[in-house]
Amino acid sequence: MSLNETPSGERVHIGFFGRGNAGKSSLVNAVTRQELSVVSDTLGTTTDAVSKAMELLPMGPVVIIDTPGFDDEGSLGQLRVKKTRQVLAKTDIAVLVADIGAGLGVCELELIDIFKEQKTPFLIAWNKADLLEEDAIRPAVDGCEQMYVSALAKTNIEELKEKIASMTVSSQTAPPIVGDLVKPMAKVVLVIPIDESAPKGRLILPQQQVIRELLEAGAVSICVRETELAGLLNDMMPQKPDLVITDSQAFKRVAADVPKDVLLTSFSILMARHKGFLEEAVQGCRMIDKLKENDKVLIAEGCTHHRQCNDIGSVKIPRWLREHVGAQLMIETCSGRDFPDDLSQYALVIHCGGCMLNEREVLSRMERAKRQGVPFTNYGTAIAYMNGILERSIEVIYG
User: Fold this and answer.
1) Interval 37-70: pLDDT, tens
2) What are the backbone dihedrals phi and psi of residue 66, each rounded to the nearest 5 degrees, phi first?
3) For residues 46, 48, 54 and 60, what is the CA-based torsion angle, rounded to 10 degrees?
4) How far apart are CA 131 and CA 129, in angstroms?
5) Pairing state of beta strands 60-66 and 50-56?
6) Which stretches within 134-266 are classed as H helix?
7) Is residue 366 within 8 Å of 348, Cβ to Cβ?
8) pTM above 0.85, yes or no
């Protein structure tokens, strides 16, 4: 990925919802000026959510999501509805597309209730307004923004985009990853292991993002493997660094090599802060000491990748957990969008930093765990806690 390319997890996610044949796909195509979705008069043409990362003026980098009809019936329809609910978990702004000739039915009212329950900013786009009789209007819906549009006639499409753009504030509440924690010309050492689990020929996303933010902050970044860190600090750097950021899996070795008076944290901890769940992760990792024989632990990743023989999520963390607790734990893993709805069977959820997920989806997963009384933490805080350096690893953030 280019350093200039905005990752999907940092883009505003705009979802289009509604019943089948309300014109969602046609409106998406009109808004994006692309044939993003297949359009047909046949009910149920959109069978799965269709996503597209793109630049959309005046909003900038966004992800546009076209969803299946929410009113579908039968087993396939239930699957489509389930997919739509999954999309809602990551939607920053929802556009409810309603057929102006049909009005609001059970489907639309249910969606409005879900939007309000999840505190998702939304508006109603009354589609097919070209068919509306002159001076006729739909009654106002309490607390709902409304617009009249026509995907076919391209009526009020630019106005719709302007309105959506004005609703994007929720996507801009997250703090930077590291840029606000360093001063210009600060010396920051980035410890990046290059082992069998490292991607070939590239850096992982959090490492790229941190480097970019340090450059923008005017700081000086020095990249090194954990095997060369001690030599760098002892022999090559005339002064101590202001901050060391390490891959979490190297925390133990790096903590031993970095002087105690030098600030130390990890990419994963910084990402948890950026995504808005660090405080919950810090509290959740303390549950590790309360784990007992045969407790179930879910280790979740937001992305899907080929797991190597010494993968951190499926191999290293389970081994470190069992060693720390001194008990046989039941470890389950999930990746990508396969995060369970029912978490009640787990004693703890350990999530990755969430770099491939937007803030809303990560927080949705955290809230799901909280509602079910399940502690929620992440890779970096859990590893720091098991190595006795949690307080040190968050000092740069909390002081």
Assistant:
1) 555 444 545 556 788 888 877 778 889 999 888 7
2) -100, 130
3) 90
4) 5
5) antiparallel
6) 157-165, 205-216, 226-231, 251-257
7) no
8) no
